[in-house]
Design a protein that fits this description.
55% helix; flat
Length: 1351
């Protein structure tokens, strides 16, 4: 409404735009003589001149007239094509960032060269987006001579699967020849080189996928795109509207984890009832602590720290994920209830309808776990690595433009989604006729059937003979049934084909295309013509006229052709006194009359009767052949069936396609004969000139000229017949698609026509009122063969299409609203990735993350009533103890202990030994106190949980008891049935013997008490087993307590027995480990300290030896010696006391100071490792970045002096500086890779969770809440959490992440260099330290691998 109001006030903006373009076109035309006078060298030099002027401050708008004039002249010289005025207007609209709506055949491929060249002058790269690979390479090759002459390079992208997953692309090289069309004049290059070309052609998918791939790369040098400056989209409605429904997604199978699912399925079957708890209401199953201990025993590896279950390594988290799904599959999802196993596959049963849902799969690994449980093949699950919608990809371009033949019907969507305005340009013929002084004028007339049409005649022609045409769009015809419509379509195809007019039939699906194709075979055509003949003869024999009403006697002829009985037809014919021989002298004239043909058409009709209508079918199945099929669709007698405008981007030319090589040869012949402007002549004018020449003048181009003359003759013949006739077999739900189909006819002033056939059974008619019309036709007893042909019907259909288009737009907009949320987050993440890859030094960023993480954890740790030991354990995890080149780099925990020892001013070995033994004793006491304090809470929580479980079971028993009373007396259950029912109800084994069976029948109350006592006893023993197991898991030793014996005690008694057992265990440990100076730890302290001076390294090694012992044993399975590590004590509880008295700021400062020192020590060892890898190399063998690092370290003069000598020749001072700089660079690259890996891993997981959120929020509508609002709110919280997780993950890896970073320093890595890389050196040092003495709370090597996953 507002747009219409604006038109009334300010005039038609489209008309104003065209008028403005016309003024610029006048400027371009005025430059034509000047550019025609330029030599090729001078024309090529124009590009350099334009670039210089642009750099000096000129704008593209200012350069436009001259640049367009240059392109026009280059086109004339290379292709023999002169862009006419409307094409120049189209180029102007595209440059201004609009959509140019130009009719089919107006030369949009050539139009695009104008703004592409102009915008490529900026050097930022421009993109031409097409709808398929063929058009990308065809258009690039076709237009490349223009760009080559103007010194502009052209790249071509092809489908990633054909180019090594998007690694390769092409540069147009006109000198390269190949017999393979997809390689001709295309030189394979790295994909990045194709993007570095001035202009790059490709499909929307390839540009979008390259964007996603670039944002998955771990190295900036591997990126291929260089930004999104300007793009022209060919068939813009197809790309931005039709394909916008489907987002671009890069996905792939998760790691091959079938063996893990199978292993866990077997393991969970060995669990005991006390190992897990089931919550039927929430459909969850959880491990108890005793279950965790049991699983750790079965798997032979720890699953978590019982004191810190929230801090698990990635490996542990992965194993727990497999276990969780295996337990759900085993204990919650039942075969024949939740799923069936059919044909070796797990098929889900819908819980609401009970129907099977083949193809559907549970997510999060549950389906794989169920497959493993059932022993069928475990299928991989897919994960999304990256995704973006078409809308959001193209909205990234600074300037976007498009061209198509049909855009006005979707103008609102283009404007609202992409901020694109549609400019409808008139066809060149109409524009030329509208100009003052034009030699053409528009004439209206009627054809022989009474339909109005318009054509253009020359003003000086008194007879007003048509010179150029407008398309005839006949009114839609509507039939009651699909069968009647099909028959009418085939009848029209036969009539038009027989006279030689080419036909294009548009369908809405592959199925419809195949159906129509079948009807054009000989046998169905014979059936149709026989039915038509019989009906006509019956009318003549009975002196009836066809008034359009039902004739009962011939009604059987309207049955579908495949159901018509041949014997019945013959009998009917005999009754009428005729034979069904269609080609007989009696019948053929009748058929010619029915089909509107003349006697001269009889031979071609006979061919159709004998062999059917020869035709081509163009749909998705023939995608690779579409160009050849479309190229021949305008030939004499051609019939082409196309699905939804398949083959877009290729024009249908009357008489068939004349190859570019042929037209170029003709232009050369004519230019040689003195016709310099041959390219500006029409085919007819060129034909007349050629016919006036001596054939000997054709020279080597005689074959091409002969082919041209024959093609033009055929073209003239087809024009005389009326040009291309388009038949629509059904209205599409979008007017744009119908208009595209119509637009195939009457290109560039050629004759042509179109007609749509509909039935009341078509989807669109059926949904929007067709039923009422059909009922009216049946009441009026209208004949099925009678069509409705009213403009009113067409208007109703267009109104229906408008409603459907609006609904489709709303659906796409709704999808975009959801993706906009993710898009802003995606942009933020990708910007961070780019910053990480491009920033030279990430040290400050990493330290900031470290400070934030420490600041987050310290207050919570100091406020924890359980003590600050969890903080120390976390610090031990992220920065384990290392001994690097003999220099100790202790963890924070061990640094606290070292500081405590050094504060005692130990002056002798004896004092040091005593202090260490005292520290070990204190650690045992602190651990004992911690365990005893947590024991009370452990017992209380299990007691509370037991009471809850007993209440639940009591309610279930009451329900069971009521069921017994309601049971009919004649339906007595066996003991086995009762036991099975109670076992299922109680979720544990229940025994029912004969006595209990009898009691259940005679006295349900007494029997219920017995059942409850049995259940209570079992649950109590399970609870006690879990408590004892939890304590034993923390101690990693057997306390010797029997749950069955403890069951007779009250909970206070149980707690007392546990306390006594813990005290006894620690007393034994104190004696075993320390004794009277002769315990295990005491002996190891004596051995490590020896008799020499007390050093920090000795003290650290003595501390490292305390937590674990190493025992060598013989493995019977592998027949090899193995080292078993046995836990002895924990130092964290003892060390925590040294920071609990500090303030939050003091504790944070001390921790950060320690971690920064550890980072500097790590940087030093990385530098030494890098030096060993490159010291024998010269500067030429280093990467440019590493060379600059050396220059920065040693200075310009020393750098020049070094020359071709190896780095080892550097003086000591310069060597020290170089090692430091190499260490900084190597550690920085380690941070870079760690950050990129963290972001990539968490982003993939985030995408999965966001998709799950998008699905789940739909349920919010049931609670009268807006799902989109809820989605935005939840997404905001999740995104904040994502960045916190990224920070936490990076901090957990910064001291232990060690990929080989020598590649960033040396150009190539030899085996020796790889062996001495920083990562190998650091890990080697850590491993050697661990072997000399065990590390705290696990080995150093184990800690090096540990990661924390925040939940």
């Amino acid at each position: 409404m507002l747009r219409n109001l604006a038109k009334m006030i300010a005039g038609d903006p489209n008309k104003q735009a065209v008028e403005g373009y016309a003024k610029i076109v006048e400027q371009i035309n005025a430059l034509e003589p000047q550019y025609e006078a330029l030599s090729e060298a001078e024309l090529k030099a124009k590009s350099a001149d334009f670039r210089q002027r642009l750099a000096a401050g000129s704008t593209l708008d200012e350069l436009l007239p001259e640049a367009f004039a240059a392109v026009r002249e280059a086109s004339k010289r290379t292709l023999g094509l002169r862009p006419y005025d409307v094409q120049l207007m189209g180029g102007i609209a595209l440059h201004q960032g609009h959509i140019a709506e130009m009719r089919t055949g107006e030369g949009k491929t050539l139009v695009a060269t104008l703004p592409l060249y102009l915008n490529a002058l900026s050097g930022e790269g421009v993109h031409l987006i097409t709808v398929n690979d063929y058009l990308a390479r065809r258009d690039a090759r076709w237009m490349a001579p223009i760009f080559t002459l103007l010194d502009v390079s052209v790249g071509v992208l092809q489908m990633g699967t054909r180019t090594d997953s998007g690694r390769w692309a092409y540069i147009v090289d006109l000198e390269k020849e190949s017999t393979h069309e997809d390689q001709h004049q295309l030189r394979q290059v790295e994909r990045s080189e194709a993007y570095r070309a001035d202009i790059t052609y490709g499909t929307n998918s390839e540009f979008g996928f390259d964007y996603l791939r670039d944002n998955m790369r771990m190295n900036a040098a591997e990126k291929v795109q260089r930004g999104h400056n300007y793009a022209v989209i060919d068939e813009v409605d197809n790309v931005l509207i039709d394909e916008a429904r489907t987002p671009l997604i890069i996905s792939g199978p998760a790691h091959d984890e079938a063996e893990h699912y199978v292993k866990m399925a077997q393991v969970v079957k060995r669990l005991n009832p006390e190992d897990y708890e089931i919550n039927e209401k929430d459909r969850t199953v959880t491990l108890t602590e005793v279950g965790t201990a049991h699983l750790e025993q079965l798997l032979g590896s720890p699953l978590s720290d019982p004191e810190r279950p929230e801090d698990v390594t990635p490996e542990q988290a992965r194993a727990l994920g497999f276990i969780e799904q295996a337990m759900r599959a085993q204990f919650l999802f039942k075969r024949n209830k939740d799923y069936l196993v059919q044909g070796g596959q797990v098929v889900i049963i819908d819980e609401h309808t009970g129907r099977l849902m083949p193809g559907r799969r549970w997510s999060d690994g549950l389906h794989q776990a169920t497959e493993a449980k059932e022993g069928v093949k475990v299928e991989s699950e897919n994960v999304t690595y990256a995704t973006i919608t078409i809308q959001n990809y193209f909205r990234m371009y600074k300037k976007l433009a498009g061209m198509t033949g049909t855009a006005l019907t979707e103008a609102e969507e283009f404007n609202k989604i992409y901020k694109l305005e549609v400019v409808a340009l008139p066809p060149q013929v109409e524009y030329a006729a509208s100009l003052k002084g034009s030699s053409l004028e528009e004439v209206e007339s009627k054809d022989e059937q009474g339909y109005r049409y318009t054509y253009f005649a020359r003003r000086d022609d008194p007879n007003k003979a048509p010179s150029l045409w407008r398309r005839k769009d006949y009114p839609d015809v509507v039939y009651r049934t699909e069968e009647a419509k099909l028959r009418s379509i085939v009848q029209e195809i036969i009539s038009v084909h027989v006279i030689g007019r080419p036909i294009l039939v548009g369908t809405t699906s592959v199925e419809r295309s195949d159906q129509l194709s079948t009807r054009l075979r000989a046998e169905p055509i014979q059936r149709l013509l026989q039915a038509m003949l019989l009906r006509q003869v019956w009318l003549e024999k009975n002196n009836k006229t066809d008034e359009g009403f039902v004739i009962p006697e011939v009604q059987f002829l309207y049955e579908p052709l495949e159901k018509l009985s041949v014997p019945q037809l013959r009998q009917f014919g005999r009754d009428l006194g005729i034979q069904l021989t269609l080609q007989s002298e009696e019948n053929l004239p009748t058929l010619l009359k029915l089909l509107g043909l003349h006697a001269d058409d009889a031979p071609r009709l006979n061919n159709v009767i004998q062999g059917g209508v020869p035709h081509q079918v163009l749909n998705a199945r023939k995608h690779t052949e579409e160009s050849q099929i479309i190229a021949g669709a305008g030939a004499f007698g051609a019939v082409t069936i196309a699905t939804n405008m398949a083959g877009r981007g290729v024009d249908i030319k009357l008489g068939g396609e004349i190859a570019e090589e042929v037209t170029s040869a003709v232009n050369r012949v004519l230019r040689k004969a003195g016709h310099a402007q041959a390219y500006a002549l029409s085919y007819d004018e060129q034909r007349k000139l050629l016919l006036g020449m001596n054939p000997e003048e054709f020279g080597i181009y005689k074959a091409e000229v002969d082919y041209f003359l024959q093609s033009v003759e055929e073209m003239a013949k087809v024009k005389t017949l009326g040009g291309l006739h388009v038949i629509g077999s059904e209205r599409h739900d979008a007017r744009r698609i119908d208009n595209q189909l119509r637009g195939r006819a009457a290109r560039q002033g050629d004759p042509g026509s179109s007609r749509f056939y509909l039935s009341l059974q078509d989807d669109l008619m059926r949904l929007f009122g067709g039923q009422q019309v059909e009922t009216a036709m049946m009441r009026m007893r209208m004949d099925d063969a009678l069509p409705l042909e009213y403009g009113l019907v067409s208007r109703i259909i267009e109104q229906s299409q408008t409603r459907v288009e609006g609904a489709n737009f709303d659906a796409r907009k709704h999808l975009l609203e959801y993706d906009d949320v993710l898009n802003s987050q995606r942009a933020t993440v990708y910007v961070q990735r780019d910053r990480i890859m491009s920033k030279d030094d990430l040290t400050d960023d990493v330290l900031q993350m470290l400070e934030e993480e420490v600041a987050l954890r310290v207050p919570a740790a100091l406020a924890d009533t359980d003590g600050a030991w969890k903080l120390l354990a976390w610090l031990e995890q992220i920065q384990p103890t290392l001994i690097i080149n003999g220099v100790p780099v202790p963890s924070f925990t061990f640094q606290l202990l070292l500081d405590e020892l050094k504060s005692k001013n130990l002056s002798s070995v004896g004092e040091a030994k005593a202090a260490l033994r005292e520290m070990a004793s204190g650690a045992l006491q602190a651990e004992q106190a911690h365990l005893l304090s947590s024991l009370a809470g452990l017992v209380e929580s299990h007691q509370t949980r037991l009471d809850q479980m007993l209440d639940e079971r009591e309610e279930s028993i009451d329900t069971f008891k009521q069921g017994l009373r309601l049971n009919d007396e004649g339906q007595q259950q066996s003991a086995a049935d009762l036991a099975a029912e109670l076992t299922s109800l109680m979720q544990m084994p229940v025994k029912v013997d004969g006595a209990l069976q009898k009691l259940l029948r005679e006295n349900p109350d007494a029997a219920a008490d017995q059942v409850f006592d049995q259940v209570a006893r079992t649950l109590l023993e399970q609870a006690i087993t879990r408590v004892v197991g939890a304590v034993e898991r923390r101690l990693e030793s057997d306390l010797g307590l029997k749950p069955a014996e403890l069951a007779s005690l009250e909970w206070d008694g149980i707690a007392t027995r546990l306390t006594e057992a813990v005290n006894t265990e620690f007393a034994a440990r104190q004696q075993r480990l320390l004794g009277d100076g002769d315990g295990q730890i005491a002996r190891e302290i004596d051995q490590i300290l020896g008799d020499g001076p007390v050093t920090d390294l000795k003290l650290l090694n003595a501390l490292l030896a305390m937590p674990e012992s190493r025992v060598t044993s013989f493995d019977k399975r592998s027949h090899q010696q193995v080292i078993q590590r046995r836990r002895r004590l924990s130092l964290s509880y003892y060390a925590a006391a040294f920071i609990e008295g500090l303030s939050e700021q003091q504790a944070a400062d001390r921790i950060l100071s320690h971690l920064k020192n550890a980072r500097r020590a790590t940087e030093a060892v990385w530098g030494e490792g890098a030096w060993e890898a490159v010291s024998s190399r010269t500067l030429a063998e280093l990467t440019p970045q590493a060379g600059e690092s050396v220059r920065a370290a040693v200075g310009d003069e020393a750098y020049r002096t070094l020359g071709s000598q190896p780095l080892s020749s550097l003086p000591d001072e310069a060597r020290v500086k170089t090692v430091a700089e190499l260490g900084r660079r190597a550690l920085n690259e380690s941070y870079r890779q760690a950050l990129l890996r963290v972001i990539s891993e968490l982003w993939v997981d985030y995408l999965t969770r966001m998709e799950a959120l998008r699905i789940s929020v739909r349920l919010e509508a049931y609670a009268q809440r807006d799902p989109l609002t809820e989605y935005k709110a939840q997404a905001y919280k999740m995104f904040q959490s994502l960045f916190a997780d990224m920070r936490s993950s990076l901090v957990n890896r910064m001291f232990t992440f060690g990929p080989a970073a020598v590649q960033s320093i040396a150009r190539s890595t030899s085996p020796l260099a790889a062996a001495t890389s920083p990562s190998a050196g650091a890990n080697g040092a850590a491993d050697s330290a661990a072997q000399s003495s065990p590390a705290s709370e696990g080995t150093a090597s184990k800690n090096n691998k540990r990661r924390r996953r925040k939940k």
